[in-house]
Design brief:
By secondary structure, this protein is an all-alpha fold. It is built from 8 helices and no strands. It is globular and about 50 Å long. Helix 2 runs antiparallel to helix 3, helix 4 (78-88) packs antiparallel against helix 6 (103-128) and helix 6 (103-128) packs across helix 7. The chain has helices at residues 2-31, 37-54, 59-74, 78-88, 91-98, 103-128, 140-172, 174-178. The longest helix is centred in the C-terminal third of the chain and has 33 residues, at 140-172.
């Protein structure tokens, strides 16, 4: 009986991962068609945040991989898919790792990872993929504004995670549904 219960939990996690991946792809697809491009890409990354909290282990990476591949294949505006792949998709997993460190060390890692990703995305989009519609250039002012936006994004993830733990998770007993 125990093995059957464990198999059901695995199936639930896999199904939730598929749903979160599909939702993320839809949001990224919509982001390529509206003026809310980065906003919807950031919202799509919250699927990874939820997966890191509830599903642990391999499932956040699975969601990120599936969403990244599908977005690059079907989203008409490759730049929004690239923002997800290069910055916002994997960051919630990295944030979980960084926040186990001292907060100063964590912020050094967060900002260096973000800036490296932005610079790699600019180089990749401009010089390798030849995407002219990426919308950003390598400029100190743009990089400064991007860092401010990133800090706000990180703060938002933290606040929404706290809200989730304090209000939603206990109210809907979500944690019991996926625990092994």
């Amino acid at each position: 009986m125990k093995k059957h219960s464990s198999g059901m939990k695995t199936t639930r996690k896999l199904v939730l991962s598929a749903i979160l991946s599909a939702l993320s792809v839809v949001l990224i697809f919509l982001s390529s068609m509206t003026f809310l491009d980065l906003t919807l890409v950031m919202i799509a990354s919250f699927a990874i945040v939820f997966a890191v909290i509830e599903l642990n282990s391999k499932y956040p990476l699975l969601i990120y991989s599936v969403t990244s591949v599908l977005s690059l294949l079907i989203v008409p505006n490759r730049s929004t898919a690239l923002f997800y792949v290069m910055i916002f998709g994997y960051y919630p997993m990295m944030k979980a790792v960084f926040e186990r460190m001292h907060y100063i060390v964590a912020w050094v890692h967060k900002l260096s990872t973000f800036n490296t990703s932005v610079i790699l995305m600019i180089v990749l989009s401009k010089y390798i993929l030849h995407l002219d519609d990426i919308g950003i250039e390598y400029d100190i002012i743009v990089l400064l504004l991007a860092n401010i936006t990133f800090v706000l994004y990180d703060f938002l993830i933290t606040r929404l995670t706290i809200l989730y733990f304090v209000k939603l998770r206990t109210r809907f007993k979500i944690g019991n549904y996926f625990e092994d």
